[in-house]
Specification:
Blueprint (H helix, E strand, L loop, with lengths): L3 H11 L5 E5 L17 E7 L2 H12 L5 H17 L4 E9 L2 E9 H10 L4 H5 L5 E5 L4 H17 L5 E3 H10 L6 H4 L7 H7 L2 H12 L2 H4 L2 E4 L2 E4 L3 H10 L2 H8 L5 H7 L2 H30 L2 H15 L2
Parallel strand pairs: 2-4
Antiparallel strand pairs: 1-2, 1-5, 3-4, 6-8, 7-8
Helix pairs in contact: 2-3, 4-6, 6-7, 6-10, 6-12, 7-9, 13-14, 13-15
């Protein structure tokens, strides 16, 4: 995998200023059953202050990174679509140098921060439920990152209401939160074993990421980590506390904004509560994944979309 220093240097040399640069995925963290005989594509996300200005500057330096309609219509067109269709713009298959091939996404810091806090579309929040490497950090986002992880643990606990929870399946639940209802799985363009592969290849990294969260005071009142198990006390008071920390959009998605979803969830039996939460997540992910596919059609060339889809299918049938 690519070194953090090498990636940081390449980003600073080749791109306009970014506030935050994150690296994620199989090119940075090993995944189970992944073929590493050839150098993998490195997945990056850039948080930037102003997307239009950033794209304008990037067009001057790297116009060849943009294909199809995004190249034809330029930064104003891309920024409009990022504002109203999908918050992140991806340029895939970019060869930065002989040894580094990347796919990079660009999102405004404000939209990324809102997603981490409120799970507006879970595109950024979901990526950051899994281990990532912070490559460039010119702005502090530690508070947003922590809130996102706390909410992931809260929802995963509500989906695992039992006294003994195995750590690995618990991480499967967390890794799956942003994939529930994802249209790409329904269309067959994502590997159905992806969630398990992410966790199995990264189990120790997941522990490093989530053990400090599970050790926070809000959780230690009703759970204790013992080795690879979580001892959990899912009392009515505990469930009430967890619902209070759950992102409100998840509740409103199944209850309607005028309803007190917390009271509804408390009255539900465990299975019905889990079903309602999954429904809330499904609505977020179904909409955002559909918008993302639509966005790619509006910004990338047909050839680029075909190659990207083909690579996804190859991963699925490995």
């Amino acid at each position: 995998t690519q070194s953090t220093w090498g990636l940081s240097k390449a980003i600073i040399q080749n791109f306009p200023k970014v506030d935050i640069a994150l690296a994620y995925g199989s090119g940075v963290f090993p995944q189970a059953n992944y073929n590493y005989q050839q150098a993998p594509l490195i997945d990056l996300i850039f948080f930037v202050g102003n997307t239009q200005k950033w794209h304008e500057q990037n067009f001057q330096k790297n116009e060849h990174h943009y294909k199809g309609p995004s190249k034809l219509f330029g930064p104003s067109y891309i920024t409009f679509l990022q504002q109203y269709v999908c918050p992140i713009h991806y340029n895939p298959f970019v060869q930065l140098n002989d040894n580094l091939r990347i796919k990079y996404g660009v999102v405004s810091y404000k939209q990324a921060s809102n997603d981490l806090r409120y799970w507006k579309n879970m595109i950024i929040a979901g990526r950051l439920h899994k281990p990532v490497k912070i490559i460039v950090k010119d702005t502090d986002i530690s508070e947003e990152l922590q809130q996102n992880l706390i909410q992931a643990v809260v929802v995963a606990l509500l989906l695992n209401e039992k006294e003994i929870i195995e750590m690995r399946p618990f991480f499967y639940t967390i890794a799956s939160l942003s994939y529930v209802g994802d249209i790409r799985f329904l269309l067959g363009s994502e590997n159905l074993d992806k969630i398990q592969a992410i966790v199995d290849g990264n189990y120790e990294n997941f522990k490093k990421l989530y053990l400090p969260i599970l050790d926070m005071e809000i959780f230690t009142k009703f759970l204790k980590v013992e080795g690879d198990f979580i001892r959990f006390q899912p009392s009515q008071e505990t469930i009430n506390t967890l619902i209070g920390y759950m992102p409100s959009i998840v509740g409103y998605n199944f209850s309607g904004e005028k309803c007190d979803y917390s009271q509804i969830l408390l009255k539900f039996q465990r299975k019905d509560r889990e079903k309602a939460i999954v429904e809330g997540l499904t609505k977020i992910n179904r909409k955002s994944s559909t918008n993302m596919m639509f966005y790619h059609l509006l910004t990338n060339s047909p050839f680029q979309n075909f190659i990207y889809g083909l690579n996804k299918l190859k991963k699925r049938f490995k």
